[in-house]
Amino acid sequence: MAQNFIHLSDLHLTSLAGVQARELFSKRFLGYLSWRRRRRLEHRRERLDALVADFAGDGEPELVITGDLTHIGLEREFQAAAEWLAALAPPSRVALVPGNHDATVPASLDYQARYWGAYLAGDDGPGYPTLRVRGTLAFIGLNSAVATAPALATGRVDGAQLARLPALLAACRERGLFRVVYLHHCPLAGVDSRRKHLVNHAAVAGTLAAGGAELILHGHGHRDQRHELETIDGVAPVMAAPSASAAGRGDKPAATYHRFAVTRGKAGWELAITTRGFAAGAETVATLAEESRTLSRSR
Fold first, then answer.
1. Where are the transmembrane segments (predicted)?
2. Which residues fall within 8 angstroms of residue 174, CB to CB, at 6 or more apart?
3. What angle do CA 191, 269, 161 make, to 5 degrees?
4. CA 42 from centroid of its chain's CA atoms
């Protein structure tokens, strides 16, 4: 029987209406200006609500959210996002990592733990990489969200995470689990600009290639992105979902999510991918694409 899970990213579900000037120190001021100029028009809560309503009838799938629930990482935004998460599903069903907007300034890191701690934690509690095992699925979370200088949206997976990751990947392989690694920034070179990329992508991709994975999920680019990483165990798809609240202005796609169905096959794993969201100019959620992949594995 297939195990299903859903990937959402870059929700930007909060509003900055009514924010006081005293709250906009440092990098947050630039973020607020960006929200006033374009982000409040691009990110629409009703689009996100429509996606959630669309998969609400799928039973109780596991949910993977790869960050950017907020705009500038204010405490009020973390509170609002925590209320949304509580209405969405219990922490046991939601695997969350923060995005760069959730780490705008160092204070935002404290808010992550205070308001989202149960959603960020693994089965054994807090600390990255996290691990959640659900049936034959192993969800492995990496934190790439760090506070950066103004005008930068780069990320970094710190050395402590990379030091622990190989043993975790190996242990999950030995248990015969389908390893889903999820983080906000893309771990591959050349996908994002230097202003937005994962600064130690070579180390992250190298660790994943050496340790093996079945699927790598990320966000950040607000686009449906599909690449591959050759690992010791075979090819791992590297996929991103567009923003889950996007109106689809300009050349950016409208709100979309991915639904995955994983089945153990004779040659390894069967992975079915369904993309659901808003087509250009559409007002209702529909199936945008479907594909199936066989991930050959020797064990």
1. none
2. none
3. 50
4. 19
Residue 216: CB atoms within 10 Å: 27
Whether pTM exceeds 0.85:
yes
Domain 3-296 belongs in CATH node 2.60.40.10: no
Question: Which regions of the chain does DSSP assign to beta strands (E)?
Answer: 3-8, 62-65, 94-96, 130-134, 137-141, 178-182, 215-218, 225-231, 234-240, 256-264, 268-277, 286-296
Provide the token pair at 60. 């109780």
What do you get for the CA distance between the two ends of the chain, in Å?
19
Q: What is the pLDDT of residues 58-100, one digit of tens each?
A: 888 999 999 999 999 999 999 999 999 999 999 999 999 999 9
- Across the chain, how many H-helices and E-strands are there? 7, 12
Query: Domain extents for the chain?
Result: 3-296
H helices of 58-126, in order, are 75-88, 106-120
**H-helix or E-strand containing 182?**
strand 178-182
Phi, psi of 172 (to 5 degrees): -70, -35
Whether 94 and 65 have beta carbons less than 8 Å apart is answered as yes
Please state whether beta strands 256-264 and 3-8 pair in parallel, antiparallel, or not at all (unpaired): antiparallel
